[in-house]
């Protein structure tokens, strides 16, 4: 099977590197294309057996499975321009949340899947979100599910929770990275610890926290209870968080959904 990736930006590169590292696909089966060819060629230097295509059309015509890793507003022109190349035997995987599988199926006759990855997949971890098109062949569903299981935990989601699920899985690492940096800065500004040491401590704490949750030693509520002794120091810190956070996360999801609504308007105008 020949697998193609159109767009080797952040997420396209993450999918490519994770699949190759996990040996989910052989490098000789991978074809890539990027509008700036130099970026694609750079990947070929790291993985000499992959093939760099000279155009979208060349990749689509050559490959059986095509990952479309471009910005939402760039997807429709790409699909429309090469509509005849997306034959029924092929599978199209879009990684952008504002484009539904129904919209994909309205343009191409291939099996259509929306797959929302996470940067955590690069560590062969985290979640991959799936929505399968109504006309998607069973063989493609099984292949993608099995393949992505090698680099993540695949979960199928309904259309109505696409944005919030993506916020948690895909945007979440950036949100919590930002909060962790603020946590570190607070420690540096208020105490004698330096940023390097505080960063090491905070990073290792997060890794340990992840392991506790992964091994199901504690749930989030029981973990807090175990650390937060009544009348202790942790309790004072929790009290500050309760006072200061307020409706911050509610506002965060409001903001992401408002931007999502703008993107939906653009894609609806394109797809009709």
UniProtKB/TrEMBL annotation:
Biological process terms in GO annotation: L-proline biosynthetic process
Residue ranges of domain Pyrroline-5-carboxylate reductase dimerisation in the record: 160-262
Presence of the UniProt keyword ATP-binding in the record: no
Homology family: Belongs to the pyrroline-5-carboxylate reductase family.
Species whose genome carries this gene: Oikeobacillus pervagus
Chain residues that bind NADPH: 56
Taxonomy, superkingdom: Bacteria
Protein name: Competence protein ComER
Molecular functions per Gene Ontology: pyrroline-5-carboxylate reductase activity
NCBIfam families: PRK07680.1
């Amino acid at each position: 099977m020949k697998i193609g990736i159109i767009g080797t930006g952040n997420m396209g590169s993450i999918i490519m590197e994770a699949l190759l590292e996990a040996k989910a696909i052989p490098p000789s089966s991978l074809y890539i294309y990027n509008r700036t060819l130099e970026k694609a060629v750079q990947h070929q230097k790291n993985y000499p057996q992959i093939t760099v295509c000279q155009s979208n059309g060349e990749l689509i015509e050559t490959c059986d499975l095509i990952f479309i890793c471009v910005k939402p507003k760039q997807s429709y022109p790409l699909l429309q321009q090469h509509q005849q190349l997306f034959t029924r035997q092929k599978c199209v995987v879009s990684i952008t949340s504002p484009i539904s599988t129904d919209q994909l199926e309205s343009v191409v006759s291939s099996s259509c899947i929306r797959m929302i990855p996470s940067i955590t997949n690069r560590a062969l971890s985290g979640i991959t979100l799936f929505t399968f098109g109504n006309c998607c062949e069973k063989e493609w569903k099984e292949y993608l599910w099995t393949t992505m299981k090698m680099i993540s935990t695949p979960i199928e989601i309904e259309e109505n929770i696409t944005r919030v699920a993506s916020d948690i899985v895909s945007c979440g690492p950036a949100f919590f990275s930002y909060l962790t940096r603020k946590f570190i800065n607070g420690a540096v500004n208020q105490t004698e610890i330096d940023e390097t040491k505080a960063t090491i401590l905070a990073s290792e704490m997060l890794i340990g926290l992840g392991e506790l949750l992964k091994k199901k030693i504690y749930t989030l509520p029981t973990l807090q209870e175990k650390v937060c002794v009544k009348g202790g120091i942790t309790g004072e810190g929790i009290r500050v968080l309760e006072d200061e956070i307020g409706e911050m996360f509610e506002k965060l999801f409001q903001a992401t959904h408002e931007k999502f609504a703008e993107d939906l308007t653009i894609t609806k105008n394109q797809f009709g």
